[in-house]
Amino acid sequence: MGTERIGSEALEFLNKLSVNNNRDWFEAHKSEFKALEKKVKSFYSNLMEELKKHDDIEKMKMFRIYRDVRFSKDKTPYKTHFAGSFSRAGKALRGGYYLRIKPGETFAAAGFWEPNKEDLYRIRKELEMDASEFRSVIQAEDFRNTWGDLVGEELKTAPKGFDKEHPDIDLIRKKQFIFVRNFTDKEVLSSEFLSEVDRSFRNIRPYFDLMSEILTTDLNGESLLR
């Protein structure tokens, strides 16, 4: 069994890193970081095992602490958070899970970060034709209590080829289809954090099921899978 909770030492290290974000300090504390990274990765692995009990997870990816500063104005070399994502398996299962751990700014997220051009068009055409099922899913009480409102980048007006007066233009102009749940540090350090993140991800399934159906069929409902 992997690590089942995030220790306070992980948040404490990230707080120290945020005020000492330089290579000299990091190199002097690298052994401490490596030990913490191992524990955090174990937590993520344990979360993946819980996810596998109710979803088909293909892989987990932990993101590196090192920042790519080549094209960034912010030249600090290290991220001040731990983060990882979980990919669903197969062509029929769409959507992804993400968890970031950062003092005061921890959140879980699920949905569609960067739909490719074809997927984005297909989603928009579905919403143009009939958004009632989509709204029903995301407005269900248990779903909203967990995830709140749909978030993500959106256009200021209608996408090309779509009517800006369409009654569902608020959804059609979205470029991302994401849900985010924030957690306090107290919640992160709780023994219930892992199960609560897992419960949140379990509650996203009606949304994933609908979006997977949309993205694997044409507008007539015919399967695109071979």
From TrEMBL:
Residue stretches in coiled coil: none
Origin superkingdom: Bacteria
Pfam families: DUF2461
PANTHER family with a match to the protein in the record: CHROMOSOME 12, WHOLE GENOME SHOTGUN SEQUENCE, DUF2461 DOMAIN-CONTAINING PROTEIN
NCBIfam families to which the protein is assigned, alphabetical: TIGR02453 family protein (TIGR02453)
Name of the protein: TIGR02453 family protein
Organism from which the protein derives: Muriicola marianensis
